[in-house]
Amino acid sequence: MPRQLLLILALVLAALQPALAREAAPAVPDPALEKRIMSLAAELRCLVCQNQTIADSHADLAVDLRKQIGEMIVKGQSDDQIRAYMTERYGDFVLYKPPFKATTLLLWVGPALLMVGALTALVVSLRRRQRASDDAFDPDTPDDANADGSLR
Question: What topology does CATH give the domain 25-99?
Answer without folding.
Answer: Helicase, Ruva Protein; domain 3 (1.10.8)
